[in-house]
Amino acid sequence: MIALAILGIAVVAVFQLFSINLRTTRKAEDYTKAIFYARSLMDEAQSFADPSDKSASEEYEGRYAARRDVALRSESEDGRIKVYEIAVSVAWPPSGKFSMTELRTVYDPEE
C-alpha cells in the first residue's frame, strides 16, 4: 500500500513536470514566432527608400497581431537628411507581447 502511494505521488510529479515543460515550450515558440514576424516588418521598413508613410498592421496565423509605426525624429535644416524611428510590436493571446525599435537615417540628394 505504501509503495502504491509513493508510486502515485511520483506519477503526479512527472505529469506536472511534463505539463510545465509543454507550457514553457509553447511560450518559447510564441516568442520565436513573434520575433520572426517583428523582424520581417522591420526589414520591410528598412528596405524602403523613404519609410515616412510605411506604418502598417498585419495579422499572422489569425493569432499574432503585428503593428509597425514610423515617426520622423529629426531632420536637417535643408531637409535632406531625416532620421526615422521605426517601432514594431507583436501581440498574441492571452498576454504575450514583443516590441523592437530601430532608427533609420535617410539622405535625399535631390532635395
What fraction, in percent, of the residue positions are helical?
A: 40-55%
Structural class: alpha+beta
Radius of gyration, Cα only, in angstroms? 23 Å
How far is the N terminus from the C terminus? 87 Å
Q: Within the largest sheet, what's the order of strands? A: 1-2-3-4
User: Quick one: overall form?
Assistant: rod-shaped
Report the major sheet. 4 strands, antiparallel
Number of discrete helical segments: 1
Kindly report the oligomeric state of this protein: single chain
Count of separate structural domains: 1
The low-pLDDT segments are none
Strands, count: 4
- Average pLDDT, rounded to a whole number, is 91
In N-to-C order, the SSE pattern is HEEEE
- Strand fraction equals 35-45%
